[in-house]
Records
---
Amino acid sequence: MDSKKAIALIIKLNRDTIEGKLTWQTSRVQPSLGNGGIVIDNVYYTEVEKKILRLYKFSQKYYYEEDSFEWTENLRLEFVDFYWKSEFEFPPISILSDLYETVRYKTSGVESFLDSYLGDEEPEEKDTDF
Amino acid sequence: MLKDIIGDFISWDLDKWSQVTGVVGFIITIIGLFISLSIKSKLSALQFSYTFDKRINEHIRNLKNTSSQLNDYFNNYNTSTNLIKLEIGKCQSELEDIADKLSFKQSRKVKTLINLIGRKKDKNFSQQNASIKVLYWPFYIILNRFYPTSYEDVWRIYRLLQEVIVHIDNIKKNKKTMLN
């Protein structure tokens, strides 16, 4: 897949998520990973143009010699069918981490929590004039 | 035959010998000069390659940090415009440092982003919902200089930054493959 198209897609997903046009949900179905891979944190999914997109972080053994390996953390965005089987994996480009953080932030409900818990309390000014 | 040639050499006087050895010495010096220049250029290329390899991971890490910071600021865009300005300024210096280490062809994408940031970062930043005036060439080029940097412009910088990260990552991978 052309990396430019993959970047454009992930940026659009990220932007729509930030702007609230796209909502993600957590999935209870764990993806099956080879090489003793383990899913870290939640598995998220959303529906776009009648396709289900699944996003998750996982840890996998990376063998650099026959019996020497190290655990590496990766992110995966993929199309899944209605049985949660993977149909297509998007290239693992670095921008996936930005999308993952946005999805985590939005699905955690931290914004509504802060609004309801802090109420009318004014937060300290984040921005400063230069 | 061989005897004649040797005889010729023996019959040369000291003057002729000094002329011939002078010419031979000159030719050897010129060849030596070319060899040392070639070795020097290969050493510089090796030194450049070493510096590139040593620093490139740090550059990629810094660009990824900028990307993740910008992504974070998008969640509260209207209150983070000055922080965005600061972040893209940092990104511009990082990109200038990277561009020096790339060939002319490799650095084109990086320079496009440097120019875009240069045009946008010192202007006022408009709010996220500010209306965008659609201008067409040639009015766009003339009037765009006076418009503030919009939310769309920051997304454009972010998109180009992603392309640059992938581009530099690919250069690094290609170089690694060539060395193996």
---
Amino acid sequence: MKKLFLTLAILFTFGICFSQIHPNEKLVYAASYNMSGLMTHLAQVTLETETVKTSKKDYLHLSCEAATFSRWDTFFKIRDLYESYVNPITLKPSLYKRNVYEGGYFKTEKYIFKADGRTIISTSKKRTKPITKKTFKVGVSTQDVVSMVYKLRTVDFAKFKNGQTKSFVVVFDEKEFPVVIKFMGKEKVSAGNLGDKECFKIAIAAKTNVLRGKDKNIIWLTADAKKIPVLIRFSIPVGTGQLKLSNASGI
Amino acid sequence: MRYLLITLSAFFALLGIAFTILPMGTIALLPIVLSLILAFLAVKKSTDNQKKIPKLILYISALTLLVVIGKEVFIKDEVVVDQQFDQKKVESKENAKKELEELDDLE
């Protein structure tokens, strides 16, 4: 009992966010590519959560799946699966898996986060290349890209002022890079089957070649305790795109 | 000027057809609308016995426009059931469970 109180006290003292992410949540998005306001619907992106029990522990399985719509499959088929197995309370990842199939190209990647919280054992395989194994060090608060999305939902944006920022560190392609989020106020956004929702508008900046432009990569999270990602707009080297929530269940 | 309008409208009409065959969505409207405008201007610039080709381009573009609108209205975006992908997801979860068990034992 004493240990429990001590743990809780430490967590509160250091402001560690408790997860508001529940199992069996399913969020379905339509991904589109924009050109001068005209749009082509490319794929369906599904974010799901589920409890996974081992003999000793419970984990929260976070998965992000992208699949092209049938009319695109003949031309450029995408079947991507990103998964993270995290502590259900702190969202600290233990295992991250990436299985990518994009128009004939495939890549698999697996990170095992060791108990020290600073070491990752990575196993990856690209199309024709042999399996590579690598062990590398990361910061104690480093997240994988999937758990980062969910970690963002634990931030108390209600207390943020316009322009206020917060930093995260993400590991992707065996490299760590900082991600800075900036609170940009509130806006009303259409949220699929949830109707119109007041949302927190958050700009995301990352030091990668993937995202372009200042304040052009924006995520809208419902301005309630659930903080459901409703709309994601991104600017990439070949144009702009968006992910729009079409259906949310189990929230 | 008339020849330039016909050439450009024909080019955009072909691009429109290609975009209509490809699943480009409403992006296909860009070349189609350009083709329609240019073909219309070409018809206006033509004498009565010169109107055959620009009119043909105009009709083709209009037809392509209808196909694009029809596709957008009637064809629903859906993901087909991919058994191979579903199997991959199941296997991934089973393997992950084993890996997590091993990880628990190391702690």
